[in-house]
């Protein structure tokens, strides 16, 4: 470490140039000695000097190229560490042997894997509703933007559990939480595998049905309603109201959610336990 600190005046911003400079000087020691002896004795053997000079130049070129190649894994490792610190993912990390560089590369690999795992866990937790296990609204928007590409049609369904406040008062908050979790799981089980389910907030849920039209979406929601009617959720014979609105572009998701919410309001106003399609004319 002392030598490293002592030589920092040589290219302080580039360890590679510092190392190459020291190696360059070391390779020229034979030539310097030959010149020094010739000067001291006054005897110049031009043939010997030319041979030493040629060998020195060849050795210097080869040494510089070899050292540059040997330092390449260190350069790559520092670049990858910088990407890891910035929270970015890194590509495949080269494997080394049992030497110092190999141990460094294994350390970078371990750091990259741990950082990626930690990032995945944080992203998963940030986009999941901790009570029901389905996506939260943030996760819903993230997933929706990935599937709403081009002009592919889709339908947004907003669902609200009927009379949930009264049910929650009767069951208590713990019982209400059980009911919300059970409804979310039933929703995931009944809708199509390609559909995106989320807890919209409180007792409201959202389902995005990619590739579906309004009639197909109504059939899926009716299937969910029928499933709950045939096999009631724990502790309560709950029903739900639903508003449907067609969507063609991820940029319109906020506006379409308002239309679906208006349709949901109509469904609740007209007696609940029904599915209402938004007027989008």
Structural class: alpha+beta
The CATH topology of the largest domain is given as Alpha-Beta Plaits
> Number of helical runs?
9
Find the count of extended strands (DSSP E, 2+ residues).
Answer: 5
Q: What is the helix content? A: 55-70%
Q: How would you state the average pLDDT, rounded?
A: 81
The CATH homologous superfamily of the largest domain corresponds to Reverse transcriptase/Diguanylate cyclase domain
Pattern of helices and strands: HHHHHHEHEEHEHE
Overall number of structural domains: 2
Commentary on this structure:
The structure is a single chain. The chain is an alpha+beta fold and 281 residues long. The protein has two domains: 2-121, no CATH class; 137-277, Alpha-Beta Plaits (2-Layer Sandwich). The protein has helices at 2-6, 15-27, 29-41, 46-85, 100-126, 137-147, 164-190, 214-230, 253-269; strands spanning 154-161, 196-201, 204-210, 240-247, 275-277. A five-stranded mixed beta sheet has the order 2-3-1-4-5, sandwiched between helices. Helix 9 links the parallel strand 4 (240-247) and strand 5 (275-277). The longest helix has 40 residues, at 46-85. The model has no long low-confidence stretch (mean pLDDT 81).
What's the layout of helices and strands?
Elements: H1 2-6, H2 15-27, H3 29-41, H4 46-85, H5 100-126, H6 137-147, E1 154-161, H7 164-190, E2 196-201, E3 204-210, H8 214-230, E4 240-247, H9 253-269, E5 275-277
Parallel strand pairs: 4-5
Antiparallel strand pairs: 1-3, 1-4, 2-3
């Amino acid at each position: 470490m002392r030598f490293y600190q002592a030589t920092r005046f040589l290219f302080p911003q580039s360890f590679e140039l510092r190392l190459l400079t020291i190696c360059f000087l070391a390779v020229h020691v034979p030539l310097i000695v030959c010149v020094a002896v010739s000067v001291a004795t006054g005897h110049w053997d031009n043939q010997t000097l030319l041979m030493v000079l040629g060998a020195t130049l060849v050795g210097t070129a080869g040494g510089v190229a070899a050292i540059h190649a040997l330092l390449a894994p260190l350069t790559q490792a520092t670049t990858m560490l910088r990407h890891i610190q910035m929270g970015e993912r890194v590509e495949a990390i080269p494997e080394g042997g049992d030497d110092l560089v190999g141990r460094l590369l294994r350390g970078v690999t371990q750091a990259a894997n741990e950082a990626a795992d930690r990032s995945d866990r944080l992203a998963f937790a940030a986009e999941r509703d901790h009570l029901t296990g389905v996506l939260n609204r943030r996760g819903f928007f993230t997933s929706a933007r990935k599937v709403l590409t081009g002009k592919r049609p889709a339908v947004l369904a907003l669902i609200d559990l009927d009379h949930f406040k009264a049910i929650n008062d009767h069951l208590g908050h713990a019982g209400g939480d059980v009911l919300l979790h059970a409804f979310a799981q039933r929703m995931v089980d009944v809708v199509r595998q390609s559909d995106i389910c989320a807890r919209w907030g409180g007792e409201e849920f959202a389902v995005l049905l990619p590739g579906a039209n309004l009639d197909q979406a109504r059939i899926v929601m009716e299937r969910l309603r029928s499933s709950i009617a045939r096999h009631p959720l724990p502790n309560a014979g709950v029903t739900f109201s639903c508003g449907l609105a067609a969507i063609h572009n991820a940029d319109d998701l906020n506006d379409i959610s308002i239309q679906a919410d208006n349709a949901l309001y109509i469904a609740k106003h007209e007696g609940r336990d029904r599915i209402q399609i938004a007027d989008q004319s």
